[in-house]
Amino acid sequence: MTGGGAAAGDGGPPPRIDLHAHTTASDGSLAPRELVALAAAHGVTHLAVTDHDTTAGLAEAAAAAQDLGITLVPGIELSTEADGISTDILGYFVDPAAPALQAVLARIRTVRQTRVVTMVERLRELGAPITLDDVYAFAGADTAIARPHVARALVAAGFVDDVPDAFRRYIGRHGPAYAERYKLTAPEACRLVRAAGGVPVVAHPTPPNDPLSDPKRLRTYLPPLVEAGLGGLECYYPGYPRKVNRWLEALAWHFRLVPTGGTDYHGAWRASPPPGGVDVPPDTVARLWAARR
């Protein structure tokens, strides 16, 4: 389940790596075993399951990976926010049983559940014909319930055209049904991942219309995270042109971070390349393994 795995130069074919993928444990459309099987079918040799704010899918994914002969990197994606900036922190090689990690995840789950109740109430006041049961129909028993599940319920009810429409009109940050989430800061998330034996990495640092898309802003933003234990920067991501790859690689080199990458695969819920569809350097997993401390 854990381990650095092979790197280029071992004499075999180079590994195909995807370090960012989601399952039904959070907001993906495939069960953990189904995701691993799809990744294997696409030639992925090293896969990280990085569900939002939960490790619930890792045991099933690990069993499937062992059966199919691929290396699973146990991971997570922690949602953070401070000073109006939202940052997702990926954690690689985390111990799912780490008490401090699970304590924070339990608090996040509680807030998520309350948040969804509030959003459904506000949506009903706005005329949306949905109930809490409708939302949970899109989530499993151990799923980290979140806004995408609310959005899918709205689509199923015919109240919005699609998931982006739901966020744009109702449940996005400035929407009339938006409710605040648990406020974990990015440095706190980095320390939490390190305490769980993992390596924290900033996910997709340059989304459109994000203030951190400015290289100078991102360079200023990173030092407190590095001080808190940041170990990597996601430099390879769907839609990133080579120019963006290069300046992110330069930032990673400057701060001595491991450049990482992945598809952020969610299955049917979001358009993206299939698992393994983003080129990631063949030594990435080995470098992340070495970056643990």
CATH architecture of the largest domain: Alpha-Beta Barrel
How much of the polypeptide forms β-strand, as a percent range?
A: 5-15%
C-alpha end-to-end distance: 18 Å
Q: Give the overall pLDDT as a whole number.
A: 92
**Structurally, how many domains make up the residues?**
2
The CATH topology of the largest domain is what?
TIM Barrel
Largest sheet descriptor: 7 strands, mixed
Can you put this structure into words, describing what you see?
With 293 residues, this protein is α/β, with parallel strands linked by helices. The protein has 2 domains: 17-104 and 186-290, Metal-dependent hydrolases (TIM Barrel, Alpha-Beta Barrel); 114-171, DNA polymerase, domain 1. The protein has 10 helices and 7 strands. It has helices at residues 32-41, 58-68, 99-125, 132-136, 147-156, 163-171, 186-195, 215-227, 242-254, 284-290, and strands at 17-18, 46-49, 71-82, 85-92, 199-202, 232-236, 258-261. It has a 7-stranded mixed β-sheet with strand order 1-2-3-4-5-6-7. α5 packs across α6 (163-171). It is globular.
